[in-house]
Write a structure and sequence with these properties.
Blueprint lengths: L2 E6 L5 H11 L6 E8 L5 H8 L4 E3 L9 H14 L8 E4 L8 H6 L4 E5 L11 H8 L3 E8 L9 E8 L6 H24 L3 E4 L2 E4 L1
Parallel strand pairs: 1-2, 1-4, 2-3, 4-5
Antiparallel strand pairs: 5-6, 6-7, 8-9
Helix pairs in contact: 1-6
Bound molecules: 5-O-phosphono-beta-D-ribofuranosylamine.
Length: 207
């Protein structure tokens, strides 16, 4: 069976690209990206989707200010329209800059993955690389985890570690982390699609 995937992205979409490439090359089998949805019309992720002949949908959030559930319902409706159902689908957050409502998370329970540019639970939230530099850690990295109602707190699937160098800037550190993101996000998707992730409380065992 092919797992239908929906990707939510707000920005340049390099993680989206890594997953497109991993499906194309056959690294991830039995999965298809059915739709890429963005809350920003100018998100380069939408361009990447179009270039790969994947439906690219912009959903304008401005009429939904203060009504997150209604906007999320629109996303859910769109996902379902493209075949990404809560029963069989997989939703990937790839630089999606909005917080999902608990309703959305419940609906796609343990079928939403996120990537975050730090070793969670360290440095959740925005500009994690800057937070790591300011804190002075010698190592940081990235985390792929299931999305849960609490932001950046769901069960962890994979992590990768990168060193922090004395002369690092937010940009150089981000770039080093990004390389690892592009490796572990496709790997986590592959494990999910192959049914090899077993969730036991907070722990995710890889079968
Ligand atoms: C990545 O650093 C990811 O960890 C974070 O947002 C950024 C998205 O980058 N959640 P891109 O749009 O995939 O290039």
């Amino acid at each position: 069976m092919t797992v239908p995937i929906g990707v939510l992205a707000s920005g340049r979409g390099t993680n989206l690209q890594a997953i497109i490439d991993a499906i194309r090359s056959g690294y991830i089998k039995n999965a298809e990206i059915k739709v890429v949805i963005s809350d920003r019309a100018e998100a380069y992720a939408l361009e990447r989707a179009r270039a790969a002949s994947i439906p690219a949908v912009y959903l304008d959030p401005t009429p939904y200010k203060g009504r997150r559930e209604e906007y999320d319902n629109l996303i859910i409706k769109t996902l379902i329209e493209y075949g990404v159902t809560p029963e069989e689908g997989l939703v990937l957050l790839a630089g999606y800059m909005r917080i999902l409502s608990p309703m959305f998370i419940q609906r796609y329970k343990m079928r939403i993955l996120n990537i975050h540019p730090s070793l969670l639970p360290a440095f959740p939230g925005l500009r994690a690389q800057k937070q790591a530099l300011e804190y002075g850690v010698k190592y940081t990295g990235c985390t792929v985890h299931f999305a849960d109602v609490e932001v950046d707190k769901g069960p962890i699937i994979l992590q990768a570690v990168v060193p922090v160098y004395d002369d690092d800037t937010e940009e150089t550190l981000s770039e080093r982390i990004l390389k690892e993101e592009h490796r572990i996000y496709p790997e986590a998707v592959k494990l999910f699609v192959e049914g090899r992730l077993k969730i036991e409380g907070r722990r995710v065992k890889i079968l």
